[in-house]
TrEMBL record:
Belongs to the protein kinase superfamily. KdkA/RfaP family. It catalyses: an alpha-Kdo-(2->6)-lipid IVA + ATP = a 4-O-phospho-alpha-Kdo-(2->6)-lipid IVA + ADP + H(+). Pathway: Bacterial outer membrane biogenesis; LPS core biosynthesis. It is a peripheral membrane protein. Keywords: ATP-binding, Cell inner membrane, Cell membrane, Kinase, Lipopolysaccharide biosynthesis, Membrane, Nucleotide-binding, Transferase. Its EC number is 2.7.1.166. It is found in: Cell inner membrane. The keyword Cell membrane applies. One of its GO terms (biological process) is lipopolysaccharide core region biosynthetic process. HAMAP family: KDO_kinase (MF_00521). This is 3-deoxy-D-manno-octulosonic acid kinase.
Length: 260
């Protein structure tokens, strides 16, 4: 494979981490984008779950439409996600998307959006690498990010225990930070919000996310989507610690963060 482009993000992210150094290369319809400050130029095997299974480095698989593999490599833990379709389109093709240029591929867009947010100090995983494989008029894609240590999806936490009001307010304040930065999340739900053991809030899965001019219409729609998600989990069988007062705390925390 040969290098076709190299770019450095010169600004530190403000949280004591080395700045992301974006590099990309292409060969025979395979395009790879990676953070040279985090890993060396990755081989194709870096994106293959079977490779990590053979190396006995596969630590687990997170379930869901975009099932993610967790693996260890050189004392770091990574999350590998293969892009998969949902809904009725999955019946036509489970992982192929229409090609309209490399910059428009889902992995490329999400990697760059994550890199921008990470360097702004927003609570997201650090993007590590993306792979796009072209198949004629279509493509398939993968994304690798650093694994956030000790995190649990909000939905799983609420099945186990209730949250303190301060934690709900923190969730609302975190969402407001993204909105204030003009970040639109296409699927803000109770599985894409993570909590660590110290109560810090993270947001993941920015597939189809985008930068937008801050506007109350899409911001309120984002909040409403999360509210519906929590309500759906509440309707499922078994305990789920979410009540109306909890949502009021989310809104209170959201409103407490300045829009400026």
């Amino acid at each position: 494979m040969h290098s076709v482009n190299q770019a450095r993000r010169g600004r530190n992210n403000g949280v004591g981490q080395v700045s992301i150094q974006a590099q990309q290369f292409s060969r025979q319809g395979v395009h790879i984008l990676f953070d040279a400050a985090c890993i060396e130029r990755p081989a194709v095997e870096f994106f293959e779950p079977d490779h990590w299974r053979e190396q006995e480095a596969l630590l687990g698989v997170a379930q869901g439409r975009g099932a993610a593999c967790i693996f260890r490599f050189r004392d770091q833990v990574f999350v590998l996600r293969h892009y998969r379709r949902g809904g009725w389109m999955a019946k036509l093709s489970h992982d192929r998307y229409r090609w309209s240029g490399l910059a428009d591929t889902r992995a490329w867009r999400e990697w760059h959006l994550l890199a921008e947010m990470y360097e702004q100090g927003l609570p997201v995983p650090r993007p590590v690498a993306a792979r796009v494989r072209r198949h004629g008029l279509f493509y398939s894609a993968d994304l690798v990010s650093l694994c956030l240590p000790g995190v649990t999806p909000l939905a799983d936490v609420l099945r186990q225990r209730p949250l303190a009001e301060a934690q709900w307010r923190s969730i609302g304040a975190t969402i407001k930070r993204f909105h204030r930065a003009g970040v639109y999340h296409a699927d803000l739900n109770a599985r894409n919000i993570l909590l660590d053991q110290d109560g810090q809030v993270f947001v993941i899965d920015f597939d189809k996310g985008a930068r937008r001019a801050p506007d109350s219409s899409w911001q309120q729609a984002n909040l409403a989507r999360l509210r519906r998600s929590l309500g759906k989990f509440k309707q499922q069988q078994g305990p789920f610690h979410f009540e109306a007062q909890a949502w009021q705390c989310v809104l209170t925390g959201y409103a407490a963060v300045s829009s400026l």
